[in-house]
Description:
InterPro entries: ATPase_NBD (IPR043129), Hsp_70_fam (IPR013126). Pfam families: HSP70. The protein is α+β, with helices and mostly antiparallel strands. The protein folds into two domains: 12-95, Nucleotidyltransferase, domain 5, CATH 3.30.420; 109-226, Substrate Binding Domain Of DNAk, Chain A, domain 1, CATH 2.60.34.10. Helices cover 23% and strands 30% of the residues. A hairpin with a 2-residue loop joins strand 6 (148-150) and strand 7. Residues 212-222 have low confidence and may be disordered.
Amino acid sequence: xxxxxxxxxxxxxxxxDLVGDLLPEGVMCINEALAEIELVPASIDLVLLSGGVTSMxxxxxxxxxxxxxxxxxxxxxxxxxxxxxxxxxQAFHLSNQHPDTEIGEEFPVLxxxxxxxxxxxxxxxxxxxxxxxxxxxxxxxxxxxxxxAEGTSVAYQIQVCEGEExxxxxxxxxxxxxxxxxxxxxxxxxxxxxxxxLTSGLEVTAHFASPxxxxxxxxxxxxxxxxxx
Length: 229
């Protein structure tokens, strides 16, 4: 302030002493939340730590003690910004997507599952119906039946669809590979990445998972846009 840079070092022990009275309140909130949804700590598989306070070793130890059978994960990126980021997404949703939505209503969700068709025409969901938006997911598949073979290359066609029942076609991704690579004994695999934003539509990328694929062949990319409400 006014060109003055003030720094006040505080030891971990001193800081934990200052906030010590607040930690039991946090434990009480967790217990109340579990009681409200009629669950016990042993029924929780995964605990995601978010918020700046969760970077404190003492808080992490408390959570680990409360959920000894659960997997404990720290929120990616900057945990101290998670709450603010969530509030920002909610504000964006309310102001741009559904201006008549009341505060407290749920985030936008995917109305129909989005996925691919397997060789038998069955639907394999990647982004499932009802998942919160924005959303993303990966899927690894086996490339067993080339759709075409011309010259020195073969092509694998992947049909992207929407809806487990209607299977509405959204687009096709084609991965190409040299015949010499496709002729190996090992089964070729491809990795698909689905990403769906609030307004940007659906983007699907695909690449071969095997190290034999060249750099050019590992980056085929196609964007498919769908409308969702």
